[in-house]
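User: Please write out a complete single-protein record containing the residue sequence and its fold in token form, without commentary.

AI:
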Amino acid sequence: MKITFHGAARAVTGSKHLIALNNNTKILLDCGMFQGMGEVTDKLNGYFGFKPAEVTHVVLSHAHIDHCGLLPRLVAEGFAGNIYCTPPTMDLARILLMDSAKIQMQDAEYLNKSRRENEEVTEALYSEDDVAKTLSLFKIVEYNEDFEIDGQIRILLTDAGHIIGSSAVHLTITEGGKETKITFSGDVGRYGDLLLKSPQSFAQADYIIMESTYGDSLHKDLEPIEEMLLEIINRTCKIKKGKVIIPAFSVGRTQELLYALNGLELKGKLPDLTYYVDSPLSLQATQVLKNHPEVYNNGVKRVLAVDDEIFNFKGLRFVESSAESKAINNDPRPCVIISSSGMAEGGRVRHHIKNNISNQKNTFLMVGYASPDSLAGKLLNGEKKVWMFRQEYDVIAEVRSIQSMSAHGDYEDLLQFLSCQDPEKVKQVFLVHGEYEVQQHFAKRLIDKGFKRIAIPEYHQEFEL
């Protein structure tokens, strides 16, 4: 049995981990899109490193685009097996993948209109027809269901607490009469998340593929989210008379922001402004979350006892048409704009950045992970000039962040996730989904906890299990 790491290897995005059995059965864990990696992003997304037609099964940990975003490309290039995931993940993947196809096609059209004579034509990675074909291959697996894929392979999905439907994937593979247990963490959420239940514990594994996004960071001892939001909104909108623009992923982060703003209204503290959610996808994702109340933690359930609209409040407006989105930028009145994507690598938020980045009245608020090479990452790193739509813009607006809103667990959360394991019985831990320096720091923490064999795979590196 072999495993090869074709994405999220010494990087955070592009999750693709391929397990090959001795009989040529191949199991792909996630099929994510690379995001925010600068000029190499398109090249990475155009090459799998394996033949899609040879993949037998796909297991999807959750619906974020960096974990599911290349599934339609996989299908277009020949994959015809089943894609296994939880019910909420399927519901989210349906809207996220359709949205991804639309954004790619729109961005390609925009770039091709303005391309110079010697520049190549930009093409979308896949079409809406590719997405429709992909969705027909999805197969539902409930949390904690011991599910047999075939005579050799069983899967169990446990709640990872990252976004709605997110799961850790536990494989039991039988070869030559011997069982091997492999756990893939997916993305691990936070213990004590604003909305979701904490990650579940799981049975002993032989091999663990472990995410490490925040392997050297702590989210603790930060101000409460509601109070930080209130301070930033008051400073920007009431004192500076500007706009707060929040690049936020349509799934997870946007709903947490709405929940926190609703909490301010329940306390009578919410400033009287217009709060735009400028992402049609966010409206659909919010509805998916409403349709799966079983994922809420006890704190949310207590709020629901007094307020059955936890994502709605005075002044909230969901923006659907592109014409209305453009009109926001022409309106000088102070407001709050929540728009995708979270790394500002695509979607409507880039237009809001373009139109507002050079005005000192405005504030850009970052509320989640952004890779260093992404537009959001560059703003977080304090760059004074940014490049968008083939043009350079001066960064004059204020840039703030709320780190505690990350859906990724910090190193204490990651260690707690692994605390159910006997390190002596784990043959190897593979660290994925992290910047290399961060992974090296986290590897030392794991060694201190008794895990003896830690590998940090390189892109396309293969290991014998």
